[in-house]
Design brief:
Blueprint lengths: L1 E10 L3 H12 L4 E5 L5 H5 L2 H18 L14 H11 L6 H10 L1 E5 L1 E6 L2 E5 L5 E12 L15
Parallel strand pairs: 1-2, 1-6, 2-3
Antiparallel strand pairs: 4-5, 5-6
Helix pairs in contact: 3-4
């Protein structure tokens, strides 16, 4: 198994993970990011940005229909293909080349794959090709994998 060592290893390349790694490098330390999907995170590709891009066209049309002078100029309906094309462009067509390029220019190493904490300050990354590498953090491992709801029952038996 190939092994690498960094000052800080960040699991998750969403906005938080990217910012943590950037601050680490700006502070003079080394950093690596582990990401199993696209660099940039959920908001950039599946949630906030593409959703807002989809909603904006309908919102603009609705506003124009309510505005005297503009509504008279409107004919037809939204062009679904154009609306979806706009969404796709906002999600960079689900390619993270620009974000990866930024990581490289910032001096942040990228390891693609599923990261698992194996022991204190050791992260094992398994790539989609099945190849596994070990990353050792001299100072810290940061878990920045986003959030999901979790319900924890405190006390009681019912």
């Amino acid at each position: 198994m190939t092994a690498f060592e960094y000052d800080v290893v960040v699991i998750g390349a969403g906005p938080v993970g990217e910012n943590v790694a950037d601050r680490v490098v700006q502070g003079g330390l080394t950093a690596a990011i582990v990401e199993r999907e696209l660099v940039g995170g959920e908001c950039s590709y599946w949630a906030c940005m593409p959703t807002k891009a989809l909603l904006r066209s309908a919102s603009a049309l609705r506003a124009a229909r309510q505005l005297p002078g503009a509504r008279e100029a409107l004919t037809g309906h939204l062009d679904a293909a154009a609306v979806l094309g706009r969404r796709d462009s906002f999600a960079s067509h689900w390619k993270d080349d620009g974000q990866v390029s930024w990581l490289e220019s910032a001096g942040i190493a990228l390891h693609r794959g599923q990261g698992r904490i194996r022991s204190a300050r050791v992260v094992q990354v398994t790539g989609v090709d099945g190849v596994t590498v070990s990353l050792t953090a001299r100072h810290a491992v940061v878990v920045a994998t986003g959030t999901s709801p979790c319900f924890i029952r405190l006390g009681g038996t019912g």
